[in-house]
Amino acid sequence: MPRMGLDKKTTGDLVRLLCFVVTTGLLTSLLVITIGNISFQSTDSYEAVFSDATGVNKGDDVRIAGVRVGTVKDIQVTKNNHAEITFSVDSDVRIDGATHAQIKYRNLLGQRYIDVYQQGSSSQRLPSDGVIPMGRTKPALNLTVLFNGFKPLFQALSPDDINKLSYEIVQVFQGEGGTLQNLLESTASVTQTLADRDKVIGELLDNLSYVLNHVSDRDRQLTNLITSFKRLVTGLDKDRGPILGSLNSISALSVQTAGLVSSIRKPFVGDIKQLRHVATNLDAGKGELDRMLQVLPIKLNKIGRTATYGSWFNFYLCHTIITLRIGKKVLAEPQYSTGAARCSLGQ
Fold first, then answer.
1. pTM over 0.70
2. pLDDT of residue 174
């Protein structure tokens, strides 16, 4: 009899163990299905081309109006350096020519999902393995560009205030210390800093509004400028051949000019040297040259008066000095004087 009671106890323990194993297996399977986004419904596969698919991973959700209807299966790079995402959706989901796809943020950790929505209507349903072109897709919002837009505002804040506010938030929500009052005080400090910059922010917005208003007032001129520039670029593109040909001619002209300069360089250098000697001689006799320039108008007036009665001149030789020299050595210096009375009058 004791042996029979031991068998009943063993049987009960075995039944409880089996119940525990079955229950644990079911719960584990449910957890795997939930985490792994496993669906037992029939699905269709499609592709969507995006200009940028940063952050999208295999296994991410495909949703319609926030409801999960599919999963991302694969991500490839096309020949045009675009992202081609292969995804599956339930067979009862309609994907047609008016279906658009956009990558959105799933949470603050950076996880993404593909939002599928209808824009317009289409009577033609997209076949399985069909492609949604890039014209009907949108990449995720670039948070870097968004935060860079707030960079001047963040620079106006004190780093100590930002650090203190972050520390208070972590402490309060993790239950590691701090009070709600400290959190509010830190928030008040940050908002007070923003309030102190209210005038600067207001002036910035006023200036931006002023600029935008002027741009708006000159919308027609701006449009004409862009149109004219487009015509200029188009004309240059059409005349690309003649322009390149003229550049070749200019290159040939430069070569010929360089050859010409090379051939005349030696005599040109000699001329420059002789010009330097001329300048030196002029500088040495600048006193006589100045006196000549001063007396020359008087002499020209006298000659002009003499020549008013005809195309000839009357001269009377009074005194002549002839100097003969070799280099700086004077060989002879004969003189001749008429001794006439009229010559004494001119002295």
1. no
2. 47
